[in-house]
Amino acid sequence: MTDYLRRLNDMGIAKFAEYFREGAHGVQPLHLLIHPDTSEPLAVSIKLVHRDYPNRYELGRDLAMRLGLLDPAVISNDRGLWTWLALYLFDQLCPSEADGKRKIDKQYRYILSSDYRHYYRHLVRTPWQLFRDHGPTSRFLLLATNDVPSPLRRHGDILEQLGGTQSIIRSRPIIAEASRLYSDPLSGRPRKGVAGKGGGSIRRFARVLRQLDLTFDPELMPPGSLSAILPVEFDGWKKSAVKPTLSSSTATVSTAPQ
Amino acid sequence: MSSAKRRINSTGRKKISQDKIALRILSVVSGEPLRAKIGIDLESMGLPASAAVSVEAYHRSTAMRFDCGTVGTKKIPEILSLNELDQAGGVLFRIKIVDQEDHPGKILASADRVRPLIDGEHVGRKSIFPVEYRDLGQEVWRVEIEDDAGPCLLLNSKIPALMHRIHENPLVAGALLPAAFRLVLSYIAHNPSEDDEDGAGWKADWKRFCGEGLGVEDDPEDLEDEDDRDLWIDEAVRRYCETKSFVEKARQMTPGVAHD
Questions:
Q1: Residue B35 lies inside a defined structural domain of this protein
Q2: Residue B142: inside a domain, yes or no?
């Protein structure tokens, strides 16, 4: 099935929100996607091919490619566009259970919020943003440790720990270093134990970065230097991490498949 | 005992003083992202010409970074478009000078928690309760308090000339300003001070205003009892209202039946 990307207008977003308030029973209001009263075309024609995405990384990569003609600074906060896409992909973001009911999550997962505490939790915009910012390095942020059913509906603990601080999640050197420490070099998936609460966990990584922020600027540190100043609690992860390679100004995982 | 927290400067980084920074938020246009303009004077600080200059704008967890060349060759964007920041709050800035030679990534000098000037403010004369305009949806006003940088009164940019209208109407001013004032005092009374490197800060400024400007005795941090702190707040708000004579002015403006 081929469709053309549009954006929901205020009425379209309100109707979609109403569907949530009523429990999201039954078939989602797909008519909102194309009805001129509830949606509008984009200035540029973007073709979409409906497909089942195997994971959030593939969703991000596909969207980054398809939306490449649009100005990322403009669409980044385009509530109508991201909410349109969430409705378009709703069966994958919020699938029906065996009894026909949907297990709906917070509304900001589907309708882009302007609240800084929530907007990075949108289930469609975030994979696009992460792939755009970090390319293949975004794998460990977007993939689960193992294959899971309905992968598009899960935001993930790692992202929850890092995503709330924009200076961390948008930083290529920091995410490259985190990927090198915490991801499996072959699959790109996060390694087991990353999302724990103990020493050296991703939670601690975010906290230590905020402490180092006063004295070091990771954006201008050579690959591997950030890892070198992390405290001993990270030694276990460092020992098993792949060596960084020079690639522009950032460290990349050299063995990760493309 | 207050839980004073000092920032330790273990790497010997220099402090860029506020008078070396000309930073201003440009007038807010409803529906458009915030924009800022900045100038930085790094002469006579003895910093290496090769060190990188970067400016970070932030509000809570949202942040934007602008790479501005080096100390020797600054390339500061004419206008900083703050389109990725949370638009509904007070923006703070951080300026960093970063070594690129001996210890790449080490911060050599910085200015932290820099609050931009706003319309009507002049260098060297900053308000302790600045007013900023933001798109607050259907909220008319809001007080925002960052423990680092102090409070600001946010007014909805969608309402034309709102500050002027508040000043013009003592009833509106009397309903809004003491309430805003009370929120800040309450924050000060219930959140102990943190010492700055130079032993001053916005809370000290406010307490000085209450003491010298309004004649309120006591320092809320010396008051151990919660009720006494609440009384300190009430006293300060009462005296503030007296200096402004809100009720008298409102009565003169709208003569009618007073609800005594």
A1: yes
A2: no
Q: In the 3-class helix/strand/coil scheme, how is chain A assigned residue by residue?
A: CEEECEEECHHHHHHHHHHHHCCCCCCCCHHHHCCCCCEEECCCCCEEECCCCCCHHHHHHHHHHHCCCCCHHHHCCCHHHHHHHHHHCHHHHCCECCCCCECCCCHHHCCCCCCCCCHHHCCCHHHHHHHHHHHHHHHHHHCCCCCCCCHHHCCCHHHHHHHCCHHHHCCHHHHHHHHHHHECCCCCCECCCCCCCCCCCHHHHHHHHHHHCCCECHHHCCCCHHHHCCCHHHHHHHHCCCCEEEECCEEEECCCCC
CB–CB contact A164 B61 (8 Å): yes
A225–B59 CB contact, under 8 Å = no
Q: Which domain holds residue B114?
A: 1-125
Asked, for residue B99, whether it belongs to a domain, the answer is: yes
* Least confident stretch, A184-193, B7-16, B59-68, B105-114: B7-16
Closest residue to A116, CB basis, from B62, B65, B104: B62
Within a domain: B258? no
Q: Does residue A187 belong to the interface with chain B, where contact is any CB pair within 8 Å?
A: no
pLDDT at B158: 86
Question: Of A215, A227, A249, which to mutate for an interface test with B (greatest number of B Cβ within 10 Å)?
Answer: A215
pLDDT at residue B204, as a whole number: 87
Instruction: Determine the residue of chain B that is closest to A120 in CA distance.
Output: B62
The enclosing domain of B83 has a CATH number of 2.60.40
Does the beta-carbon distance from A167 to B104 stay under 8 Å? no
Closest CB to A217 among B10, B62, B96? B96
Q: Assess A71–B contact: CB distance below 8 Å, yes or no.
A: no
Classify the complex by whether its ipTM is higher than 0.90, answering yes or no.
no
The domain tally of chain B equals 1
pLDDT digits over B119-153, tens only?
Answer: 555 555 567 888 888 888 889 999 998 877 789 89
A171-183 pLDDT per residue, tens: 999 999 999 999 9
Best residue in B7, B56, B62, B110 to probe A by mutation, most A CBs within 10 Å? B62
